[in-house]
Structures are given as structure tokens and as C-alpha cells.
Amino acid sequence: MDFLWIAVAFACGFVARQLGLPPLVGYLLAGFGLNGAGIQPFNGIGELADLGITLMLFTIGLKLNLRELTKLEVWGGATLHGLVWCLLLVAGGLIFIWLMPSLDGHWQQLAAVAFALSFSSTVCVMKILEDSSELKTRHGDLAIGVLVIQDIVAVLFLVAATGKTPSVFALALPLLWFVRPLLKHLLSRCGHGELLVLVGFMIALGGYELFHAVDVKGDLGALIVGMMVAGLPKATELYKSLMSLKDLFLVGFFLNIGFSALPTWDMFGWVVLLLATLPLKFLLFFAIFLLFQLRARTAFLSALALANFSEFGLIVAHQGVDQGWLPESEMVIIALVVAISFVVSSFFYKRAHSIYAQYKHILCRFEHPMAQVKHGYQQPYGAEVLICGMGRVGIGAYHALEQRMHEKVWCVEVDEIRAAQQQQMGYNVVLGDADDIDFWEQLDVSKVRLIMLAIPSIQEMKNIILQLRHTEFHGRIATVARYDDERKELLALGADVVFNYYAEVGAGFAEECAHLLVPPVTVGEVAVQS
């Protein structure tokens, strides 16, 4: 039976990928299909899903910038959106019931549904941002910050709804910060193999169990211990080590959603009605972010990423059924709405950059006049070469070219913290998102002869190449690739050179060592030569 689950999940994920959709869409459909076929879930799927969410929140913490949470647009945007959303849905629901007296309903029921759907899905948003390599972009930081604030509200709701207050020992949780030096030492002694992965599991699950033991949401504990590890020397390596395993466990989460509900035909009218509120959710986030003087692109991409319903809505609906606020049929409807919203969100976000490029002349009309002043771009003055991405490949390329071209080599880095650190080290770095068409349109590239894309995501490099072709840039484009099929895609799209570092690192290694094969020169030979 386990093989059947794996085979069906793979088949649906594979088909979704061939259609240009994220594999998670296929996993969702696989869960509903298996449920509809009457196949019972295998033992442990719930635990597998919970482990995936715990690891996901831990990895979020590893990448989370605490300063983001203190920004007004993050906590203010999350709070204002939740309040306005609930008011609009309750008011709209009351008007709908008044127009159709045959429908049953009251404001408490409407408020419970509105609150359940006010949250955005942490799992879905993280997946689409990861797949697009946009976790550390401005809009990625904003979306994740809003999700964290929503998680905090979720904890407060569970405390109020269940009447289960945290233990008095929860007051000692801030003391965990003093364990950070021990974690640093522990990680540094674990090497680079399976022991590092195992200690990552231990820290993530330890945080979950510790918070759960003092009656605080365990997932919040995984997030917080991840934040404690963030910034340590091994944090980035630990993040990369856990990524594949986390994604594998999350397959169980998406499959499990299909077993949360099996709808009947008479429910689909309500499902369609609730899904019709997704554009409202997007527009509300977009308007609020613009109100906080963010750029139109940042507001658009963040709002589009957050335009889905959260799996937490199922927990709220379950509490509503227990409290008598909602009938059991509402639980099924909300489960189906949440699942379909994942599909819709994944579909549109995959096309987010092309949509923005097509309609930016309209979207930018709503931008606050101060947005460009507050979030403007630096200029790489005198640059003839721009290196996008300052990871190991980008830094290596910078050092090699800077020795010959000096101030004519500049870098573009999307991570604000990393960019600031590299500027302090004396690198010629500008902060910017190379995937942002506004960035290229406002950048002076008249003297730039070569743009090098040292970015791990092929999708992001493809977006950048397309955007460069729509700007005034007439120079050459060089990229990197891991696989030969990726190399062919980039060349077909317009890249002039694609360096396949898996295939060509051997040639570089041989060239670096070639001098070792030259016979040593003796003293007598030196005398003859002179």
C-alpha cells in the first residue's frame, strides 16, 4: 500500500510539473484522488505531515531576519489585513443572507469562517518562494514576516478558544537564548555529513517538544530555535542539508489534506463562492502594502504570494465545530477551499513576474510618491561587468576579475544583510533584485559590457534574461548551470555563454594543477639561460 501512495504521488507530481505547475499541486490532487477511491491513508501519514511542517518552520527560522518583524509594514500590514478582511466578509455575508432569506446563518458563524480564511498558508507560500529562489528578496522577507505575525495570532487564538493557557514555566523560555553558544559549538563539531542533518532534526524537534511541554504551540518552538541558530557559522549549511528531507516530508502534508474532506456536489456552490474572495484577499494586501509606501512591485508580489488560504483554517473550523459555531459540513467546505487555493496561488505566482512586467504601467500608478525615495536603487558607477549573486561562485568570479579591472567590476546582491557585510569588506556591491524589471530599467547600464548571472535558480536566470532583452542593455550575458539540459535552455533563451560547473570544474582543476607537471629547473640550467 505504501508503494501505491508513493507511485500515485509521483505520477501526479510529475504530470503537474510537465504542465508547468509546482509538484505540490499534483500531491494535493493525489490525496483527493486516493480519498475518493476509498483508499485509507497509510499509518503514520499524519506524523509525516507534522514532521514536515516542524522542519519547514525550523528552516524558516534559519533564514528569518528578526528586524523584518519590527517593521511597520509587516506587523501593521498583517494586523490591518486581518481586521479589514473579517469585517468585509462578515458584512458581505450578512448582506448575502438578507438577500436570500432561505439561507441559514448568523454573524458568529460568518465571523468564524472569515477568521479561518484570514490566514495565508505558511507551507504554500514557503514552497512557491523556495521554488522561485525568492526567500531573501524584499517581497519574500515581507511575506514571511506577515506569516510569522499570523502564526503568533494563531497561538493566541488557540489559547483563547481551548481555554488552555501556557504553563508558568513558559516564562523561562527566553532563557533559551543563552543556549546559543552551546549550539554554535555543537554544530561546529558535527562536520558536514549525516551527523549535521541529525543534529538539525534534534534541535528542531527539541524546540517543538520543549514548547509543547509548557503548553505553547510546538511549531512556534521550532520556528524560534531556528531563529536562534540563524547567523551561526553552520546555519546556511544546515539549511541546505535539511531542505530535501523537509520537502519529502511535506509530500505527506499535501497528501494528508486530501483526507481531511470528501465533498458532495451540493457543497461546490459554497466552495466557488468562497474561492471568489481570493481576488479580494490579494487586492486588500496590495492596497495595504501600498499604504505603507512600498514599491508597487514589492506590494504586488507579496500580495500575490499571500493570496491563498491557510491550513490553519482547518484548525479554526475544527474549533468552531467543537464550540457549536459551525456545522460539520463547513469543515469539509473550508478544507476543499484551502486545497484549491494552493493550486490557484501556485499557478499565478509562477507567472507573477511576467504578469507584473505586462501590467506595471497600470500598477505603478497606485504607488505612493515616497516609495521610490525610500526604496530607490544605488548605481554601480563606472561598472563594465556586473555579477549578479554573491555566493561562492559570484565571489570567486569577482576576485578573479577585480584583480584586472578594479573599479569596473560590480556586484548585485539581493540579501540586504549580506550586501551590507560585503560593502564593509570593500566590495563594489549594490543592493538590488536582479529579477526586478524596475531595477534594470532604472539602472544605468550604458557602459556595462558583460552581466554574469551566478544564481542557483535556473528559473530566476531565465526571468532575468527575458527582462534584460526588454531593456536598453546591449552587452553580453553569461550564466552558470548545473545540468546540460539547463545549459541548453539558457542558450536558447539568449545567454551568450553558459558555464556548466559540474562538467567544466574538472577542466579548471586540471588547468590549475598543470604547472605541477613542468620539470623542476636546476641551478645549472638557470646559469645557461642567463
Kindly list the characteristics that best describe this protein.
mainly alpha, Na+/H+ antiporter like fold, six-stranded parallel beta sheet, 26 helices, 6 strands, disordered C terminus
Summarize the structure.
By secondary structure, the chain is mainly α. Helices cover about 65% and strands about 5% of the residues. It has a 6-stranded parallel sheet, sandwiched between helices.
Write the layout of secondary structure elements.
Blueprint lengths: L1 H17 L4 H14 L8 H19 L2 H4 L2 H28 L7 H10 L5 H10 L6 H25 L17 H9 L5 H20 L4 H12 L5 H23 L10 H8 L2 H14 L4 H11 L5 H12 L4 H22 L2 H12 L7 H4 L10 E4 L3 H14 L3 E5 L2 H9 L4 E3 L5 H6 L7 E4 L4 H12 L6 E6 L2 H10 L3 E4 H13 L9 H7 L1
Parallel strand pairs: 1-2, 1-4, 2-3, 4-5, 5-6
Helix pairs in contact: 1-2, 2-12, 3-10, 3-11, 3-12, 5-6, 5-8, 5-14, 6-16, 7-8, 8-15, 8-16, 10-11, 13-17, 14-15, 15-17, 15-18, 16-17, 23-24
The description of the largest β-sheet is: 6 strands, parallel
Low-confidence stretches: 523-530
- Top CATH class of the largest domain: Mainly Alpha
Q: Return the average pLDDT rounded to an integer.
A: 82
Q: In total, how many beta strands?
A: 6
SS-derived structural category: mainly alpha
Q: What's the number of helices? A: 26
Q: What topology, given as strand order, has the largest sheet?
A: 3-2-1-4-5-6
Strand content: under 5%
The end-to-end distance, rounded to whole angstroms, is 81 Å
CATH topology of the largest domain, by name, is: Na+/H+ antiporter like fold
- Helical fraction equals 55-70%
Q: Judging by the overall fold, what is the CATH architecture of the largest domain?
A: Up-down Bundle
Q: Which shape, going by the Cα principal axes?
A: globular
Rounded radius of gyration (Å): 26 Å
What is the number of domains? 2
